[in-house]
Amino acid sequence: MRVVKQEEELIPRGMQEAFDRLRARRWDVARRGPGERLAKLEKLKALIVERRQALADAIHADFRKPPAEVEATEILPVLMELEHVRKHLKAWMKPRKVTTPLVLTGTTSHVRHEARGVVLVMAPWNYPFNLLLMPLVGAVAAGNTVMCKPSDKTPNTSRFLAELVRDTFPEDEVALFEGGAEVGEALLRLPFDHFFFTGGPRVGRRVMEAAAKHLASVTLELGGKSPAIVDASADIEAAAERVAWGKFLNGGQTCIAPDHVWVHASKEEAFLAALKAALERFYGRSEEARRASSDLCRMVDDGAFARVRGLLDRTVAAGARVVVGGGVDAETRFIAPTVVADVAPDAPLMEEEIFGPVLPVLRFESLDEVVTHVRAGGKPLALYVFSHDEAVVERLLQETSAGGTCINAVVLHNVNPNLPFGGVGASGLGAYHGETGFKTFSHERAVLRQGRTSLANLFFPPYTGKARKLARLASRLFE
Predict the structure, then answer these.
(1) Pick the catalytic residue: 69, 81, 173, 255?
(2) Considering only CA atoms, which of 349, 404, 347, 412 is closest in space to residue 380?
(3) What is the pTM (predicted TM-score) of this model?
(4) Is 435 tagged catalytic?
(5) Of these residues, 69, 81, 221, 435, which one is catalytic?
(6) Hey, which residues does 448 pair with through a beta bridge?
(7) Is 255 a catalytic residue?
(8) At 173, phi and psi to the nearest 5?
(9) Would you say 12 and 50 are in contact if contact means Cβ atoms under 8 Å apart?
(10) How far is 74 from 129, CA to CA, in rounded Å?
(11) Pairing state of beta strands 145-149 and 382-386?
């Protein structure tokens, strides 16, 4: 591959040329009104609807994701986002007037949203369509040109996305590059105006370093060990069913899945029984039936399989008990939906984000214990509270921090386009979805217009006695 040298580092020539086309086009794209931007997104929507079966086939080929989950977790959120943008983009793009303080009499002010420029979107493998298209929609709606990179761990979906982008957008408006870590590294050498990354903290730090070289803005959607907390007042059967759905959706490979559960000691056995019953309803009454179920994803690759299996085996060896599940098949990368009880807070399963179909259950006597552990584990991407005691709910909201929180539900906050979606601290930086996404990919530009009359000249030098008196008088208005 022919290369050019930029900032003493090698970048593939084709990638550099693609970036240059995007940069040359960015001002034309930024000047487009809502009608032109929406026309591009309408074309995208039409192709998604037309090719939904091909998308389902591609994701199933990558890690056996069930077609119903493709519809519910990949296609539906993107179509909802497109519809939300269609309804509101015109209003979002309008300059927003702001009030004028007395000392600025004679001026008017407003805020306008301008495109950031050339944006990079790097997507992960676990929701390979959703997590590339959602930020792409926001970036296009905000008037940017975009370069995308899907994950090489889902090659069939990556090829689908490449064709979708090519058939929707001109190459000088949206470009997509497939490949592994070497492609990602090359992309990070380019001077994008905004870097948007979804993935793990290790690569997230690398993205932030790359953005810092160009003083570019950055959005990081990372992850962490998102806890679910089930107190004594909770509806145990409803809590168990909802936790089971959120945990084992996508084979547990969801950044906002309940990573582990804290359950009040008085409800532990009832909760475990309800979890087991929910799994039997969802995936079959026996281990053989669950292994044969078409409703369960597989681990994405051998490395992911080995990592989760190792965490499970080491935790059981340390004294935990398997309540249900535990079966594995390396050849097909199958790990049965597994619930593990008697888990110590320092067990191997509690060391890192599990990202697989294994759910540790820990008991607690006092809410103080849970708050302490949640704080010690950093700020998770999501926190789930199952309680009908408002004092408990309010305490957990006030005394912990998380990217998002659901009360008596899991995952669903991610579906509401009116809510920002993002992390905090180690779980991420920035947010998107809906208007928040539009603003993420925009710069809020302050504009002040001076009329014919101005009070500002009263404060010009030389600072005579009159000017000093006026300055003191103005400041005293706010004492």
Answers:
(1) 255
(2) 404
(3) 0.94
(4) no
(5) 221
(6) 109
(7) yes
(8) -120, -45
(9) no
(10) 6
(11) unpaired
